[in-house]
Specification:
The protein is mainly beta. It is about 15% helix and about 50% strand.
């Protein structure tokens, strides 16, 4: 039988506590998996953090006031606000899905008119925004 030194016991206990703490702080919640990262394309840029999500497009911009949580199929549906360039922001719904290093995004205004998309944004790609038309 092998003896465990006091240092080894303390180190092992610390590792267990750190692992449990990390699991509680991981980017998962009962609603799903937290979307985090930066995606871009000629149609826009999406920056998702653990606090909110900001979308900037060629013709407008919007944001959510909460982080995006993905369901078990990689889809999301969250409320936010969006405004066409030069106008006031209004309530909007951000919907979409995550694929292999991509996010497909659609923004629909509260009055059910389409504002953006669907567009596909690529993980880590810097946007080169197209001209609004």
């Amino acid at each position: 039988m092998r003896k465990v030194s006091a240092f080894g016991l303390v180190l092992g206990t610390a590792a267990v506590v750190a692992g449990a703490w990390g699991a509680c702080k991981s980017p998962a919640a009962p609603a799903g998996i937290l979307l985090m990262g930066s995606w871009g394309s000629p149609q826009g840029h999406l920056a998702a953090t653990e606090v909110n999500t900001v979308f900037t497009g060629a013709c407008g911009s919007g944001n959510t006031i909460e982080p995006i949580m993905l369901d078990k199929h990689g889809h999301f549906d969250i409320l936010g606000s969006y405004g066409v360039a030069g106008s006031a922001r209004s309530d909007a719904r951000f919907t979409g899905a995550v694929g292999d290093r991509t996010v497909t995004l659609k923004v629909r205004m509260a009055d059910s008119t389409s504002a953006v998309g669907p567009i596909t944004l690529n993980l880590g790609q810097q946007p080169a925004l197209a001209t609004c038309h």
